[in-house]
Amino acid sequence: MLSVAVTAAILGHGCWLEARCFELLGGWVPEITEPPLKLLAARHSRHHGWHVELLGEVLPSTRDHDPHRLVAPVDPRWVAAIDVARGDATTTTVERLVGVYQVLL
């Protein structure tokens, strides 16, 4: 059985990761020129946003657990992983999507 603190950390990280995926995919939509990939990114972005809403509803809110402070990566290396997945101006759409779906998720 997991403690409230461990459960809170897991849920907070999940919420944080889903929010980053929502931002990444949604941010790419205006830049994607291929219509099927544009639709895929938009739909999946919204799906990750929905996960943020769902996870946010179950984050513990107690004297010891502030839901807003719980939404954080469990390890700082996750921030670097998001930056790698984000790519740069030379990263193709397919490479970006591979970064999200095969590396982050």
Give the topology.
Elements (H helix, E strand, L loop, with lengths): L3 H25 L6 H24 L8 H4 L6 H10 L6 H12 L1
Helix pairs in contact: 1-2, 1-4, 4-5
Give me some keywords for this one.
about 100 residues; mainly alpha; 5 helices; about 70% helix; about 0% strand; elongated
Outline the structure in words:
- With 105 residues, the chain is mostly helical.
- It is built from five helices and no strands.
- α1 runs antiparallel to α2, α1 runs parallel beside α4 and α4 (77-86) packs antiparallel against α5 (93-104).
- It starts with a helix and ends with a helix.
The residue ranges in which pLDDT falls below 50 over 5 or more consecutive positions are none
In round numbers, the mean pLDDT is 92
Largest sheet: none
How many strand units? 0
Helicity, as a percent range: over 70%
SSE pattern, N- to C-terminal: HHHHH
User: Given the C-alpha coordinates, what overall shape results?
Assistant: elongated
Strand content: under 5%
Structural class: mainly alpha
- Oligomer status: single chain
Instruction: Note the total helix count.
Output: 5
Q: Using only CA atoms, what is the Rg?
A: 15 Å
Report a brief summary of the structure:
The chain has helices at 4-28, 35-58, 67-70, 77-86, 93-104. It has 105 residues and is mainly alpha-helical.
